[in-house]
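sanity check this:
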Amino acid sequence: QVDNVSHKDITWEQRKLIELTSVFTDGDWIEAKDQSDSGIRLVQTGNVGTTEYLDKINNAKWISEDTFQTLKCKEIYEGDILISRLPEPAGRACIMPNLGTKMITAVDCTIVRTNENNDSKFLVQYLSTPSYFKIVNTFLGGGTRQRISRNNLAEIIVPTPCNIAEQAKIGAYFSQLDHLITLHQREF
């Protein structure tokens, strides 16, 4: 039971994931020969946890500025959402922190930048729900390496408060809850 909160004035709508974004594209195809010892950080699917970025600095991959220019890579920014299209689980998403360097991501990650009417923390919280993962699992395809296509991801319906301030409150609340759960788990 929630006290002193009126929910009857909050309108929700069903929107396709792609309708909530200003950027919705895949990362870059980077082969081993394209990698270097330093330069621009290559964020991989293994760095994408469910609602959290997993640094794994000992396994960090890089490309040079020249390779970035030659391959016309798409730079990702602090606050962008990365969605891993590969298991485990497919569809997991996190918000990119500032790593103190230019960043790109691999082809099996979808880069999502919410538009001005949508809150990224709210969206990432939705992208961690059991109902969302159930939908993702219905789309998994592709031989030995199961994945969800970017086109199928784009079509997933997201129940969204029309008011961005309401989205921000919900996103912040569940982000804080995630943080507290993580701290509690580390105690044991």
